[in-house]
Amino acid sequence: MKKRIFSAFLTIALYHYTMAQSQVIDFNLLTAPATPAATLLGFATSEIDKPRDAAEFMASVVSQTNGLSDLPANYAVEIAPAWIFGKKKISFDDFKSNAVDKNIWQSLMISAAVKRKEASESNNNPLTQVSVGIKVSLKRGDFPAATLALIDSTQEEINFIHRNLNAYLSGDLVYQALIERALDSPAWQDTLEAYRNRKLKKIELAELANLESKIKRLRFNRVGFKLDLTAGIVQDYVNNSYDQRTISKLGIWLTTGWEGEKGFSALAMGRVLKNPDADYKDDNGNMQVASIVSYDAGGRLLWAPADKSYSLSGELLYRQVSTPKKLPASWRYTLNFEYKLKSDLSLNFTYGRDFDDVVIKEGNLVALLSLITSLGTSKPVGIKANQN
Amino acid sequence: MALIPAPIILSKCPVKQDASPIILEIIVGNAQLNQGSFSVKRTISSPASIQGELRSGEPVIIGSGPELVGQRLSVLVTVATIQSVDTTLTFKLSGGTTNINITNSTQANAIGDVVVYEAYIRFTNS
After folding, report:
1. Structural domains of chain B, count
2. Which among B27, B111, B120 has CB closest to A179?
3. Considering the domain boundaries, does residue A234 fall inside one?
4. Which residue of B has its CA nearest to A200?
5. pLDDT of A71 strictly over 80
6. Phi-psi bin for A57: left (phi > 0), alpha (psi -120 to 50), beta?
7. Pair (A41, A125) in one structural domain
8. What confidence tens digit (pLDDT) does each residue in B40-98 have?
9. Is residue A169 part of a domain?
10. Average pLDDT score over residue span A201-222
11. Where are the beta strands (DSSP E) in chain A?
């Protein structure tokens, strides 16, 4: 039976392998980019500067702008203002909250990028491209019940340690007398702190180990209704002149969805993308280059149980493209299967139909077929899979 | 896993002679879990005239100026590092002749450490 399934699968796969054209397709078309400004200008994720605090951010800007005297040549940066400039004011309750004002501030990511191109054979004029983008969660979901229970339990440990510490410090009359002296004379502060630090080192509470163990188990993933807005825009300055500026790319993504605790999630997306140098076929079948605007809408269902190594998803995407030649609306649908072998190695397979009716078949197929033959046996997989 | 001491806040708070309330507030930043408490005592061995718990961002009235003169406010805040090793405590005391607003930051050694913040304020006549 297993051999028959394998043969049928192999036949279908080989048929489509010979029929389908070689192509590169982003599987996860529904996902908005994390850093729209950098993505629109073609920066790789590793090239994006991500300062963690205000000092790092300033150092990065000063270094890239030649001491704030010039525009950087090739630079992409992403900052989370709340966590760079305002983290001292973010309480745990603010972090836990799903209120829109808290969500917007804490999730706001601003990205900016600059790219300069010198005049060349393919590019008659020097060009400076500047892009900015934002990503924000209007609704980010809530912590799962298990996480809330672990937070409560962790808080109880903290309360217990706090009560013990309070009794320990307030009951030490020598320490209390030192505090009185230090209030009268700042010269006593060093003595006070030295005494206190020695006391704290001596404290051995079993609850400290319990607390650490609970903290290490805390994961702040969120479930429930989510709504994200992402937008990015690129402005071109031909001849590096302010007067010769045009908006060359524009992208807006609105993503919403519901994520369940059991690994099931549903996602819907709307997107508008403007691309000035897109290829299209005219009425005579000749390839032309023109500015196009595409309007996409789609949905995705994902089942990825937390305690399993596999996930299954399906997505459907509708596209209407505005070009000099009127094109009918088109559809794309795919099914994706992923099996995690290790944390950094997974097999995945995508099957479906693209906008131009070409069959999509992606992923490490040979490895997947090998895996299917081994399912249900006690033998190790014993294959070398290409990492995608 | 360790208890990390933060610098102790020591100050005097001259109070107004009217019945203006003295308001205490702490803000524990960096989205860290914490527990805070305060007490007001006349001497180190006397019972507390007022005490209670403190929640980040929730102001507490601890009394009026004249009734607090000569007493000492003790504040203890324990901050568990659950997000990062960075912790911050903002300590605010208003209603006296001058407001006290101090922000202290302390870095723990590792996530799971507990940072101990303390503040001691003596109320005096202006």
Report:
1. 1
2. B120
3. yes
4. B3
5. no
6. alpha
7. yes
8. 999 988 899 999 999 999 999 999 989 999 999 999 999 999 999 999 999 999 999 99
9. yes
10. 87
11. 74-79, 109-117, 127-142, 223-238, 245-259, 264-281, 287-303, 310-322, 330-342, 345-353, 359-363
Could you list the residue range(s) of the whole structural domain that residue B25 is in? 3-125
- The answer as to whether A269 is a domain residue is no
Helix, strand, coil in percent for chain A, rounding step 5: 35, 35, 30
- Give the single-character DSSP code of B47: P
What pLDDT score was predicted for residue A122?
Answer: 66
Q: Return the percentage of chain A with pLDDT > 70, whole number.
A: 81
| CA distances to A216, A303, A339, A347 from A306, in Å | 18, 9, 13, 17
**Which of B88, B72, B108 lies closest to A170, judged by CA?**
B72
**Domain containing A330: what range?**
1-23+295-388
Count of structural domains within chain A: 3
- Structure confidence by residue, pLDDT tens digits, A10-54: 343 333 333 333 333 333 445 667 778 777 777 777 777 777 777
What residues 29-88 of chain B have any CB closer than 8 A to a CB of chain A? 29-37, 39, 44-45, 56-57, 72, 74, 76, 78, 80-83, 86, 88
CB-based burial, A16-53: b 16+ in 10 Å, e otherwise = eeeeeeeeeeebebbebbebbbbbbbebeeeebbbbee
Place of tokens 């590169």: A24
DSSP, collapsed to helix, strand or coil, labels residue A44 as coil
Phi, psi of B56 (to 5 degrees): -55, 125
Residue B25 touches partner A, C-beta closer than 8 Å: no
A202 contacts chain B (CB < 8 A): no
Return the CATH number at B15: 2.60.40
What's the gap between Cα A290 and its chain centre? 31
For residues A3-15, average pLDDT: 42
Q: Which tokens is A258 given? A: 């519901």
Mean pLDDT of A207-229: 91
Q: Is residue A28 part of a domain?
A: no
Are the beta carbons of A212 and B112 separated by less than 8 Å? yes
Q: Which residues of B touch A197 (CB under 8 A)?
A: 5
